[in-house]
Specification:
6 copies of one chain form a homohexamer.
Chain A lengths: L1 E3 L14 H12 L4 H14 L5 H27 L8 H6 L1 H9 L2 H5 L26 H25 L3 H31 L20 E3 L25 E3 L23 H5 L9
Helix pairs in contact in A: 1-3, 1-7, 2-3, 2-7, 3-8, 7-8
Amino acid sequence: MFYHVKELQYHAKPDRPDPLFAKQLQEVLGGQFGEISVALQYLFQGWSVRGNGKYKDLLMDTGAEELAHIEMLATMIARLLDGAPVGDLETAAKDPIIGAILGGMNPQHAIVSGLGAMPADSVGNRWTADYIIASGNLLADFRANLNAESQGRLQAVRLYEATNDRGVKDMLSWLIARDTMHQNQWYAAICELEAKENIVVPSTFPRQKEKREVSYVLFNYSQGDQSAKGRWANGPSMDGEGTFKYVQNPQPYGEKPKLMPAPKYIHDTLPAVLRNDDIPPNLA
Amino acid sequence: MFYHVKELQYHAKPDRPDPLFAKQLQEVLGGQFGEISVALQYLFQGWSVRGNGKYKDLLMDTGAEELAHIEMLATMIARLLDGAPVGDLETAAKDPIIGAILGGMNPQHAIVSGLGAMPADSVGNRWTADYIIASGNLLADFRANLNAESQGRLQAVRLYEATNDRGVKDMLSWLIARDTMHQNQWYAAICELEAKENIVVPSTFPRQKEKREVSYVLFNYSQGDQSAKGRWANGPSMDGEGTFKYVQNPQPYGEKPKLMPAPKYIHDTLPAVLRNDDIPPNLA
Amino acid sequence: MFYHVKELQYHAKPDRPDPLFAKQLQEVLGGQFGEISVALQYLFQGWSVRGNGKYKDLLMDTGAEELAHIEMLATMIARLLDGAPVGDLETAAKDPIIGAILGGMNPQHAIVSGLGAMPADSVGNRWTADYIIASGNLLADFRANLNAESQGRLQAVRLYEATNDRGVKDMLSWLIARDTMHQNQWYAAICELEAKENIVVPSTFPRQKEKREVSYVLFNYSQGDQSAKGRWANGPSMDGEGTFKYVQNPQPYGEKPKLMPAPKYIHDTLPAVLRNDDIPPNLA
Amino acid sequence: MFYHVKELQYHAKPDRPDPLFAKQLQEVLGGQFGEISVALQYLFQGWSVRGNGKYKDLLMDTGAEELAHIEMLATMIARLLDGAPVGDLETAAKDPIIGAILGGMNPQHAIVSGLGAMPADSVGNRWTADYIIASGNLLADFRANLNAESQGRLQAVRLYEATNDRGVKDMLSWLIARDTMHQNQWYAAICELEAKENIVVPSTFPRQKEKREVSYVLFNYSQGDQSAKGRWANGPSMDGEGTFKYVQNPQPYGEKPKLMPAPKYIHDTLPAVLRNDDIPPNLA
Amino acid sequence: MFYHVKELQYHAKPDRPDPLFAKQLQEVLGGQFGEISVALQYLFQGWSVRGNGKYKDLLMDTGAEELAHIEMLATMIARLLDGAPVGDLETAAKDPIIGAILGGMNPQHAIVSGLGAMPADSVGNRWTADYIIASGNLLADFRANLNAESQGRLQAVRLYEATNDRGVKDMLSWLIARDTMHQNQWYAAICELEAKENIVVPSTFPRQKEKREVSYVLFNYSQGDQSAKGRWANGPSMDGEGTFKYVQNPQPYGEKPKLMPAPKYIHDTLPAVLRNDDIPPNLA
Amino acid sequence: MFYHVKELQYHAKPDRPDPLFAKQLQEVLGGQFGEISVALQYLFQGWSVRGNGKYKDLLMDTGAEELAHIEMLATMIARLLDGAPVGDLETAAKDPIIGAILGGMNPQHAIVSGLGAMPADSVGNRWTADYIIASGNLLADFRANLNAESQGRLQAVRLYEATNDRGVKDMLSWLIARDTMHQNQWYAAICELEAKENIVVPSTFPRQKEKREVSYVLFNYSQGDQSAKGRWANGPSMDGEGTFKYVQNPQPYGEKPKLMPAPKYIHDTLPAVLRNDDIPPNLA
């Protein structure tokens, strides 16, 4: 169950409106690695943990915090949109700055949301649960989380570099710091789980059931052998279960597939037509 | 540029048709962590690397291999669909096994693809590029890759457990082994990059610009303090730049937001209406 | 900012597992009118209110409650999936009940989420922000909310009718009661706003700017005149600004459109080709 | 069955081309509350009515009219795109007005549709049936319709405010007037159904089956008690079946959920790992 | 503008309900090549034609007819759903036929649409305008139409083969015949346009501007030379402008791409890291 | 199985960066008819062919080539983005050219992909497998392919017209030439299959099972009889099986549909309410 307090986790006040930047900032609210994604990802992972210890609690702590980040960004975007102009080409032609705003802002910020933030990314794609990950295997999922915080911090940093507004920069410096913590925290949790299990997910599948002769082989499918110079092509494997091997000219292990004809009631192209490789006489 | 050879990377032949399992197997072909996702993810990352060394080559090697995995799965699914029945409730009522197939198989395998594999997941959602990640920052992206191979191997293992067909199990044992390699390889590449940079992505953003007082703090937003027992709440931070700290009762740093009224031409609810918190007389 | 407590708002424990019903129950978690939709809809509306009175507070109260409902449903679905079987056609053929489960359950509940709830509807479509509405105009949005609670209660009732499980029914009886309250509450809020403004949204657009001669006219575009018998075709209009009128044989007010040719660099079909309405001689 | 006449329902001719405004106007053609949405929503509702009286006829009348509105907007957008320029940065740099058009117009209007309207919204999201609602319960659905016409009129008004083109304004004044009628008409139909049934949808579910003790309770989940001042927190409920009640400090009715471990073949994180809340020795 | 008459274009009455088949039949209503797709495709093409002759009229004729087909299918599906059962595993376990229906039907037909047709395909994906095509170039678009009618008739035939219901077969025999006409009609229109223009779309682009040396070359990128035996590898090209040529071992015409480093403020992986191809000492 | 060589199929180097054009060029990379679409369409068709002759080989040849085109476009787009600026309104206000870039470029090119190409179209919609077609019937699918190459060449030509950059034009002249070949090749393959089968797809469905009396009839559903002047309304049908016929005033063959009431547990509007067409007394 959740309680809401009206104060923001941190300040979210720009120096001045900037509808162009409001559009860009949507990326970290409603984009693939925006705050909606991490909030719902952590909460769904938490609700699915089949046990009630510290990992579940950590997920719920962080999921609840990310809800507060959605709130901060929604507030900031609404303020960046304060007094945003509307208009057509005639309006745009009169004033280059207004013109740049009208051409460059997200038109849905005026027409659809009435100058409010939207659950969408910086080009207007609505948020989708395609973005989130929850598998029931925590090592797998904490890797998803570490990635999400890495991508998210990268995007926040790029936005920080793109603005001169001190209020926006101040809020972003908070979010960037929290992403630093979240990268550290998932990293720590991953280390714990790797120490208890193994680096290969899932650790519970018996290794003899996999085709072990190719478990540590790098196949060189792209011409050139620069990739032979990496740690992944030399020495003991990272999971301590084998030795890396580099194959310069990988050959197929399988054969040319030949599929059976489809049943008649499917009305695929008939085998007789497929077998007949000549050019029909009238076309020859 | 790409060349195709007709032989499969590995065998893809089931013991017998099974349209229900064909539907399930679509998950690792066209689902969020299916082979289409990893193939295009690695290729797009590779094409965007701004430098031509071993990391780019590794991405192209692996991207090209994943194309071969799409091919193996497409072949296997077509064979699992061999001779799949079609029919209505009357047909289903006559034979419980046929009925189970008709009720449980993906109807598009008959109606749409004519017993071919589809670029879709196990419930029929078409594949979307929402699933893939390429940021230009390789440490971030290799974490995405390690996650993808972790989720992918987990799904392949679950499918392996779900079938009795030796041919399917044989192919899955190949794919699971390759996922073992790919987890090892991205793990190794991540270790290299973390050694050269720092574990926090991006490593190039000056730390003094982030709000450092909250860079290593765990806020306890979910009642109960189980999360205080983790490595993430104790000792030096994983990035070596600070010390973890646990905050039992996190308080807001910000204030209640109050937004400015919208311009009149937006036709949001008027400030006068919003301010008037009484119940209208005729409703009281 | 949000705090989470670990207790559920209400019990979420089924009498026994039922993976088929777990799939159906996803509809009110992650479907168009599921709890994710109402939670995010109310929160986004709340964050966008440009004023801090009772309407904003009501939105935040209810949005926070809906987060608790997501949690209850996620918990219930995970329990309905307890011990869900996996298997292929061979497994299905041995036991009709297992066969029905394997054919009828959502395969992603096993393969993807590891027996956890998913942010998806009952056929597996992932949740999308296409479902939510926040315009900045509260009367419009409260109507969206009343609709959402009407559709949501209808779906919950249909699910209630579909199960014999007393635990599930108990939880649904809670959600249905809350939907009763939420319908009542948005209804009351709508009455307040209609009393302060007008029933036509937005009330702030000057009526003389609209084409008033057709503001209260029912055009009979579907043959037959049953629709003439409704309140909408007789007497004063509901907004008190006009009189309803029924037009039996509506005629066009406009003319046949004729578009200008496209510029040459667009390479649309050339005007000369379009103008030439004869059949080419070799085809005649 | 449908017949088409070539005349438009109303004029759709702008004073002059304006590719920027063409992009914005797409919102009310192919957006969430555009004319495609209402046309298909009313038609699907009408086709599903299980009875042939005035409500079905009203739906078919209005659905057919909305098809005419799609046509008007498609015509208007094509004309706003007349002679739209194409070009790159070099072209843009030469003339600020051309530059504003090239930067601000929807590039698909040139590349994809060849200066025709698209079934998409103002940021280019293609129309999706996610937007439409048809439940078989007319009171629920008419509420959806009233909402759609409220949001739609709001968007049309915002577009009206944004243009100086008299031709566009003239067409919008028609559409706004029709939205006035449609709001009035669904309002009237709702009043009829509420008079015959009850305001709570569905009215046919026996009230004793819902958890009645919380059917009229406002839980204060957001700190601060502004929401206590509304009609929804005081007096008899709107449905006449109870009395509103305000709960200042809502407590959980449920308990902490504890999920059973997953079966072994799912390969979720093992219970032993989850139970082990200590920090592994090598990390401590 | 459109008028609706209440009679169906043709009968749409099954012999008996069949919720499983209702689900399958959704494919030709709301799938990629269902009636919604062709209706909106033809109408959007028609509205965009920049000229008012026979091609536009043909598009409007056929678009209006397809609306009638949506209506027939919506009616048929509602009747196939008559009295569809609802229930959980307990219900399913009691009667294998009911169990097959509950497992195999689309659960949204009960929960969401209340036994009405949905704007979705046979696996429940909602219809999307991603499916439709309108470019302003009629030869291109008529090819899209011929394809749509080919795919659509193929799907209708597969459904015809799958049912024993005489009422359903009767309706499908109508739709299949109309698809025969529509394939013939677009074929005829294509012949007319190819006679007036050229088979290559667009015909208006000066051929000397394309890289003519590869305009008629088949590159053998897939090992094996079966493709050398087709008409496409021999003789004059189909457009009469060149001669087909087969290249056994295609070589690259380009060079290895080398991208410039990204600007610092993008925070991609630094050039120094990318250049450093050694294994870091602590990993070697 | 696939091998990759690092050289590009053809050069992909612009004269100078142009982030606006990079955004436009995304259309032919990741749009509905971009290179991802044709690559995966041809490969999926090829993998599904149930026979191993020249048609399958042709599909694999061309599918592999299209992968090379994705690569060329990804390279070109990355180069067009070289040194793309970032910034807010303050930056934009200082320099009109920079302002035009910031307003007009795809913000995700900076924030998300770090100046790399994206699997998305020119307005930022991510690529989806909704775009691709593979039915198992080659005549149907080759028509889809001919359409794809027609739409694709049309879009490439429009982009060619829109740029002054000689490097971009050079690459496009290659792609346009290849589209010329691909239109010719699918055209040739279609001719072969039509010669072996019949122009109507599928050719294997017995004609007596379709409602032959309407197999060659043009119904005039759009007022005006321009469409009577086409080849499709006169003379023998294109498939040689009948004679075209034009029906001026098409009448319904069916009757008004009347649906049965829904079962009580669905809670649709009750029949009693639907039958009651009077206005309730309190509203009259």
